[in-house]
Amino acid sequence: MSQTTSLMWMPVCAFIILLSACQPTENSLIPTGVPVTVNMPPGATRRVYSFNANPANPTTLLFESSMPGTPFTAEILDNAGQVVAVLSGGSMQRASLTLGPASGVYQVALSSTNPDAQGSVRLSIVDEPQVAASTSVQTTSSTVQCTITATHPGGVNMRVQPSLSAAIIAVMPPDSSLPADARTSNGWYRVYSTGQGGWVSSDVVSAGGMCADLPLQIIPSGERIAATSGQFVSALGVSTNYAPYDAASYYFEVTGNGVGDFSESVSFPDGDGTDRVLLAISGLTPGDAGARPFAITMVCDGAGAENLRWGAPDNPALGCGDTAGITFSLTYDRQPLLVALPIGATQSNVDYTLHAAPIAPEDAPVMGMGIDLNGGGQLGDMLSYPGGDHSDTIQIGMVNLTDQAPNNYRDVLVMLECSGTGAEFVRWGTPGGSSYPCGGAMTLPMSNVDNIKTLMVMLPDNSSESYISYTLRALPIALPDTEGFSFGFDRDSGGLFNETLSFPFGDMSDTLVVNVNNLTDSPPNNYRNVQLTLVCDGSGIENLRWGTPGDTTRLCNMSMEVPFLQGLAGQPIVVTLADASTAAYVRYTLYAIPIP
């Protein structure tokens, strides 16, 4: 189960500002009450600035623009570095966001959503009482003018949050009016009286002026108004279950190889009818082939579940039980989702769960993997279960075998490496043969008359929910041989010796004892001076070393002279592949040539 974090949500405008304030430097502390202008030239990267939260009063961030046209994104991070608000969009010229009382240094990160555009953002950070004072006197053309009048004959309650279950902090007398500077999507306005802000319901007030243009306000992170269940007494006196008002938006994070669930509730006509959920995929890297498809499924329970709709914020057309496919990448790692009970639905109270799981896209029925007779090769792909592709068939072919020895045959070591959720369920091997788990290995013989082998990699039907990235590696190997070789040759004609070494698997070292076979007890045939030369071919020959047991520093194609005398023991020679970061397969020949 992934953790969720309350997230504040607002549409955001594009901004082009007259440069009337100083440009702050990256990571600088923006003082309260002093407007600053943040320039965003074409191609500008994400810019982060700091501000002090107020432990006694709410703090409001004001974003202002003289005209639309330069869309940007703003993220608000708390003193633990967690995202608590995301603002994005391209239509508003003025927006605000209010944080509840908090302590520590918060950050605001600004970035342009159009790398070709140029503009600037005017940012002000003010304490909530200052916002109230300024709202009542602002008369500039960029200020939204909205007046709220109490229409209920008994007066109108001002509440600490936009909820009938929130505490009452003041009362608007009948027919009195107050300015408003924010609204919610479900019919609440924020008004001010004697420096104190509160929320009033549109059911008991009238709104005059440009109230539809007020910025949509959100509830501060961590200040949920009620628990996850409650009751509301309607105007008819009938008590019904409802979903309480909660955070306007949530942050739902899932790792790129994992699965996650987000659960909440919505209700209609009473209670919270909409939730915004920002799904973010973490842990993606450039090695993820640029994309990672996810299946997002909605599971519902409760009265009126058939009314629920979810999906993209501009078109939530999916219903309970539906699944959406969304592809994420390193540069596109998040997707906003809207969950809503439409206005006009029958009475509903729905508990829902969004389930996110990566899926492996369907690929070719048979994939080809060509390998070199000296260097091998590899193939990477994904599997998932129960959704997506959960079985691959792979044909391994050695591409450059010849009709003549020694390049007409190779023993190939095949290994499977896995990462992700459910790797313990993977099985692979030849069809009808033994099966191996992730991390297992097998040897395949490849020859010029039988140079194609078929393997299968699969997640069985009894797997739990899984997503696997795997890499199939094939390396030619030198099979282990005798502990020591004896290499004897004629005193006058010499001889040669052939063998193979491989790294990191297979035989990595040989020891030979070199002898002249037919020396005599008397001169001149009781002695020979012999030149030994090692010649190599294959992959990784630069890592081979050879020589006497006390001096294995010679490279391929180097020589040494060794004297041989009748009655003395032969000369030991060591040939080895040193540890290296790359795989190697080397065939070597030791030539022995008597020196006249």
Explain what this protein looks like in three dimensions.
- It is a single chain.
- By secondary structure, this protein is an all-beta fold.
- It has five domains: 125 residues, Jelly Rolls; 64 residues, SH3 Domains (SH3 type barrels, Roll), CATH 2.30.30.40; 129 residues, Jelly Rolls, CATH 2.60.120; 111 residues, Jelly Rolls (Sandwich), CATH 2.60.120; 111 residues, Sandwich (Jelly Rolls).
- The chain is built from one helix and 45 strands.
- The strands form ten sheets. Strands 1, 2, 4, 6, 7, 9, 20, 22, 24, 25 and 27 form an eleven-stranded mixed β-sheet that branches. Strands 16-15-14-11-17 form a five-stranded antiparallel β-sheet, with helices on one face. Strands 37-39-44-41-42 form a five-stranded mixed β-sheet, with no helix packed on it.
- The chain starts with a strand and ends with a strand.
Helix-strand blueprint:
Layout: E1 4-11, E2 14-16, E3 36-40, E4 47-52, E5 59-64, E6 67-77, E7 83-89, E8 94-99, E9 105-112, E10 119-127, H1 128-135, E11 146-150, E12 156-159, E13 168-172, E14 177-183, E15 188-193, E16 196-201, E17 205-209, E18 230-233, E19 239-242, E20 249-255, E21 260-268, E22 274-282, E23 292-303, E24 309-312, E25 315-318, E26 323-328, E27 334-340, E28 348-358, E29 367-371, E30 377-385, E31 391-398, E32 409-421, E33 427-429, E34 441-447, E35 452-458, E36 466-477, E37 485-489, E38 495-503, E39 509-516, E40 527-539, E41 544-548, E42 551-554, E43 559-565, E44 571-577, E45 584-595
Parallel strand pairs: 1-7, 20-22, 29-31, 37-39
Antiparallel strand pairs: 1-20, 2-6, 3-10, 4-9, 5-8, 5-10, 6-7, 6-9, 11-14, 11-17, 12-13, 14-15, 15-16, 18-19, 21-28, 22-27, 23-26, 23-28, 24-25, 24-27, 30-36, 31-35, 32-34, 32-36, 33-35, 38-45, 39-44, 40-43, 40-45, 41-42, 41-44
